[in-house]
Amino acid sequence: SSGINAEWPLRPGSVLVSSLRLFSTNESLDDVSTESLKFMLVNAFSGYVHQQHFEFQDRKRHLLAAKEYYKDFHHLCQLYGLAKAIEYSMNRIDNPITKNNREEKIQKFKDKKDLEEKIKEMEKRENVDEEVQREIYVSYAKLWVIRVEEELYNINSELPMLEHMDKVRGGETNPSPPIKTKVMKPFILVKSEQQKAVFGAGYPSLPTMTLDEFYDAELKRIVEAQNQQKMQQPPPEPDDPDEETAESLAKARAWDDWKDTHKRGWGNRHNRS
Fold first, then answer.
1. Concatenated DSSP letters for the chain?
2. What does each C-alpha distance from 125 to 88, 115, 129, 136 come to in angstroms?
3. ∠ CA(252), CA(254), CA(259), 5° rounding?
4. What is the CA radius of gyration of the chain?
5. How many CB atoms lie within 10 A of CB 127?
6. Nearest Cα residue to 133 out of 251, 206, 37
7. Distance from C-alpha of 143 to C-alpha of 196, rounded to nearest angstrom
8. Cβ–Cβ < 8 Å for 187, 201
9. How far is CA 256 from CA 26, 252, 272, in A?
10. Could you tell me the pTM of the whole model?
């Protein structure tokens, strides 16, 4: 794999698989022996292990290594028809989730769950012959294709943040100002009145609410906010004064009252008279 430093762990396994020439561009998946199929996953596992290193000083280095391993695994799976070609640089900034690709994301999630259940079921069988074992290895490869595509997307999204943090630490740029958010007072959310009694007794300092109470409180808050917004709006201008109906007179009085309590130019920074 290009771009991977030889000092990193698990590289010997990848080198060994490559040196044994277990896979060839001139053969199909059916030509690969069952025992050799499991070695297709070596690069995927190697990438995953590198991705689990979270120390900041080495994080970027390990992510780059993981990306190379993942790309090698995915490319190998493409050669055997287990994966489709993708853009290895996709990330959250340039390729956000939209209505157009949301269905594809959902389908991949379902495929992943189906493969996990299929593998789990096959591995539970008492008699696992070569045909079943082969299907297990192929299913693992397909499962890891989906995982690797997700992780490549995540890595590409994380790397720019790490580079920004490097610049901040080095004094090359200023950190972004913190975003002020309204802090919500903590409370315990439970499903039923029985749970409310139990949790309320255990945490007397925290208010306890059921889901229904939380919903009612949120609905009340929204209604109050809407009413307050309506109260701040000026009443509608009166209709034609010649039509002296009860409704038009009421509107006219409301309009006059509003003008008496709101000086001309309020809310207009260019007219303060």
1. -TT--TTSTTHHHHHHHHHTT---TTS-GGGS-HHHHGGGGHHHHHHHHHHT---HHHHHHHHHHHHHHHHHHHHHHHHTTSS----TT--TTTS---HHHHHHHHHHHHHHHHHHHHHHHHHT-S---HHHHHHHHHHHHHHHHHHHHHHHHHHHHHHHHHHHHHHHHTTSSPPPPPPP-PPPPP-EEESSHHHHHHHHHH-TTS-EEEHHHHHHHHHHHHHHHHHHHHHHSPPPPP--TTS--HHHHHHHHHHHHHHHHS-TTTT-TT---
2. 37, 16, 10, 11
3. 95
4. 32
5. 5
6. 37
7. 42
8. no
9. 89, 6, 20
10. 0.58
Model confidence pLDDT, tens digit, residues 30-56: 999 999 898 899 999 999 999 999 888
Q: Per-residue pLDDT tens for 117-128?
A: 999 999 999 888
The structure tokens listed for 57 are 């000083």
**What residues of the chain score a pLDDT lower than 70?**
1-20, 174-216, 218, 230, 232-273
Q: How far apart are CA 59 and CA 159, in angstroms?
A: 9
Task: Name the phi and psi angles at 127, rounded to 5.
Answer: -110, 105
Q: What percent of the chain has pLDDT over 70?
A: 59
Helix 99-123 to helix 130-169 angle (10° resolution) is 130
Instruction: Return the closest-CA partner of residue 42 out of 14, 83, 77.
Output: 14
Q: What is the pLDDT of residue 226?
A: 72
Residue with token string 């069952």: 34
